[in-house]
Amino acid sequence: MRRPSRYPVLLHGFMESSGSWGERVIDGLTGARLTPVLVDLPGHGRNSGSGDPPIITLDDALATVAAAGDWPTDLAGYSMGGRIALHFAAAYPGRVSRLVLESASPGLATVEEGAARRAADEELASTLLRDGIEAFVDRWEAQPLFESRSALDRAELARQRELRRRNDPASLAAALRGLGTGALPSLWERLPEISTPTLLLVGALDRKFVEIAERMAGVMADARVIRVEGAGHTVHLECPEAWMDAVTDFLR
Fold first, then answer.
1. What residues contact 212, with CB distance under 8 A and at least 6 apart?
2. Nearest to 71 by CA among 47, 89, 45
3. CB-hemisphere CA count at 13 Å for 166?
4. What is the mean pLDDT of each run of 10 residues along the chain (252 residues)?
5. Is 83 within 8 Å of 90 (Cβ atoms)?
6. 126-160 core/surface letters (b: 16 or more CB in 10 A; e: else)
7. What's the whole-model pTM score?
8. Which of 133, 135, 144, 231 has its CA 20 to 30 A from that of 97?
9. Quick one: pLDDT at residue 82?
């Protein structure tokens, strides 16, 4: 059997890019001899541009992840990237050695929830195309979900905002329509099938995702939850040292 690679693949969240992880995470993993492979998901970063289709599909995202890694290896994803990482582990169980899901969910449990979320994401996509990237970034960053991130220093907040602004609006709209929570199939019923050792990392202030992580751990074969005190949805930015401790201990 081929030995696992020591180069974990990292998947960012919506409207972000491979640079959004921050230097402390990237340098920390590299210093721990876990040099990360940083992926720009379809519609984001270097994979954002006028050539994108009207809808970016899950198959597009899975193909991007498959092409990035030296499999088998570890896979980590934040928020949207976590959803895609979970779908990748479900589709290709032999490729993922260990799975880290930060502030991520397996989708929506009911058809009604999925339909409502798709409608909300379509409204967001239309607003983005109508009003442009600046107004959309303002709206996105004002969500209560990211309130705890206001404690970050101004330079880091400005850097994160600039990375969001660099994305192409049409590409982001295509990603919303094809990779949003309502667009992707739910994996709740398949969670018991996923035997990959999994770390579910959440900020203690992010109560919704703490509950989701605990529910997931209750049905997965080999999953554990770590709650980081003082952090909200973006643990890797708000408490990078705690993120590093949890992830490096798990991957080792």
1. 105
2. 89
3. 16
4. 84 96 95 96 89 85 96 98 98 96 96 93 94 94 90 92 94 94 95 97 97 98 97 96 97 91
5. no
6. eebeeeebeebbeebbeeebbebbeebeeeeeeeb
7. 0.96
8. 231
9. 98
Tell me whether residue 123 is exposed, middle or buried, using C-beta atoms within 10 angstroms of its C-beta: 0 to 12, 13 to 18, 19 or more: exposed
- The whole-number pLDDT of residue 50 equals 65
What's the number of CA atoms in the CB half-sphere (13 Å) around residue 187? Answer: 24
Are residues 194 and 221 in contact, defined by beta-carbon separation less than 8 angstroms? yes
Would you list the domain boundaries of the chain?
9-251
Q: Where are the extended beta strands (E) located within the chain?
A: 9-11, 37-39, 73-78, 96-102, 198-203, 223-228
Q: Which CATH superfamily is domain 9-251 in?
A: Alpha/Beta hydrolase fold, catalytic domain (3.40.50.1820)
CA–CA gap between residue 21 and residue 11 (Å, rounded): 9
Strands 73-78 and 9-11: parallel
